[in-house]
């Protein structure tokens, strides 16, 4: 294979421009070639050419394959906030200065068919990790409680909340959990905990393809356009037809980030989204739809030990090495 692959690389470098795939791949698409050879060796299934399939449909989401009910499907994903925040600090001499924070992630869970948020968290880093993701999953299993808001003028919308507990009085988790193949999701310990604590079917989709979790992506987009764009430092990223542009005139240096206040705001927004009328529900809000669904005998998935499962989901495991003198 190595001799064959050397010939392939020579052909790639000769025939493909250096800025195009696979010439711009340091491995020259080695994995793809190996998988192609494996698939070729397996052979192809028998196809009856006289059999015609009419109106063939390519299913892109789970609801196109299964007859899902409102309480069945929970989607999780991380969404980078298009905001450049400023944080006030002091240098070694005690002089104040502004530190830029260009990357904050909103990781959220959502009952997809209900369009109902069930958990969220913020990660202040270039990318979120497995601990951040576990926090969101654990919050899905906990009863939501309103925060003591630091801003005196900030208020929760009456009747709002996060998850099923404010509407039904108990915590429900989905039978199917959908997420992408991000490394924070695919860690061995995370997969094991999802199976043992979230339970049900764990469905991994392709990364970078938001259409596979389109309902959660739409929820994120709605929050982005109605709230995130109004924050100081918010911008609309560069697209195919437009350059990066600010969405408001507020200077983030004049409104430094207060983490507690931002988390309070996100909690209020997420809670309010569950009592906002939605076009897919004929103007009804997610909580109204959920109550009607439960009252009509709809299936919901819940256990009595949800708090214990949340604690198990949140446990952090670390390895320690203790060195010392054997003589002592």
Task: Give the topology, please.
Elements: H1 2-15, H2 30-42, E1 73-80, E2 85-90, E3 96-101, E4 105-111, E5 116-123, H3 130-140, H4 165-168, E6 176-180, H5 183-186, H6 188-198, E7 201-205, H7 214-226, E8 235-236, E9 245-246, H8 259-273, H9 286-295, H10 306-314
Parallel strand pairs: 1-6, 6-7
Antiparallel strand pairs: 1-4, 2-3, 4-5, 8-9
Helix pairs in contact: 3-10, 6-10
- Helical/strand content category: alpha/beta
Low-confidence stretches: 46-59
Beta-strand share of residues: 5-15%
Instruction: State the separation between the terminal residues, measured CA to CA.
Output: 56 Å
- Give the proportion of residues in helices: 25-40%
Work out the helix count: 10
Strand order of the largest sheet: 5-4-1-6-7
Features:
two-stranded antiparallel sheet, 328 residues, alpha/beta, 10 helices
Describe the overall structure.
This protein has 328 residues and is an alpha/beta fold. It is 32% helix and 15% strand. It has helices at residues 2-15, 30-42, 130-140, 165-168, 183-186, 188-198, 214-226, 259-273, 286-295, 306-314; strands at 73-80, 85-90, 96-101, 105-111, 116-123, 176-180, 201-205, 235-236, 245-246. The strands form 3 sheets. The protein has a 5-stranded mixed β-sheet with strand order 5-4-1-6-7, sandwiched between helices. The chain has a two-stranded antiparallel sheet with strand order 2-3. A two-stranded antiparallel sheet has the order 8-9. Strand 8 and strand 9 form a beta hairpin. The model is unreliable at 46-59 (pLDDT under 50).
């Amino acid at each position: 294979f190595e001799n064959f692959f050397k010939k392939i690389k020579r052909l790639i470098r000769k025939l493909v421009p250096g800025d195009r795939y696979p010439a711009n791949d340091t491995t020259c698409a080695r994995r793809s070639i190996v998988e192609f050879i494996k698939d070729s060796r397996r052979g192809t299934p028998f196809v009856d050419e006289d059999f015609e399939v009419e109106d063939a449909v390519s299913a892109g989401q789970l609801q196109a394959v299964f007859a899902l009910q409102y309480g069945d499907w929970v989607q999780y994903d991380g969404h980078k906030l298009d905001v450049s925040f400023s944080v006030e600090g002091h240098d070694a001499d005690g002089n104040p200065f502004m530190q830029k924070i260009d990357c904050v992630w909103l990781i959220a869970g959502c009952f997809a068919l209900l369009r109902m948020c069930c958990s969220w968290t913020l990660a202040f880093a270039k990318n979120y990790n497995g601990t951040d993701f576990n926090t969101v999953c654990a919050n899905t299993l906990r009863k939501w409680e309103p925060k003591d808001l630091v801003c005196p003028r900030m208020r929760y919308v009456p009747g709002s909340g996060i998850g099923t507990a404010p509407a039904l009085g108990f915590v429900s988790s989905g039978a199917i959990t959908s997420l992408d193949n991000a490394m924070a999701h695919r860690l061995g310990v995370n997969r094991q905990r999802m199976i043992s604590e979230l339970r049900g079917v764990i469905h991994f989709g392709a990364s970078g393809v938001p259409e596979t979790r389109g309902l959660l992506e739409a929820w994120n987009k709605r929050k982005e356009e109605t709230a995130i764009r109004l924050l100081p430092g918010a911008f609309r990223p560069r697209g195919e037809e437009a350059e990066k542009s600010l969405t408001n005139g507020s200077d983030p240096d004049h409104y430094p980030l207060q983490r507690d206040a931002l988390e309070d705001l996100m909690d209020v927004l997420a809670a309010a989204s569950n009592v906002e009328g939605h076009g897919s529900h004929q103007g009804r809000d997610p909580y109204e739809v959920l109550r009607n669904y439960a009252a009509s005998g709809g299936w919901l998935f819940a256990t009595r030990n949800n708090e214990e499962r949340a604690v198990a989901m949140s446990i952090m495991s670390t390895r320690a090495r203790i060195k010392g003198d054997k003589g002592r």
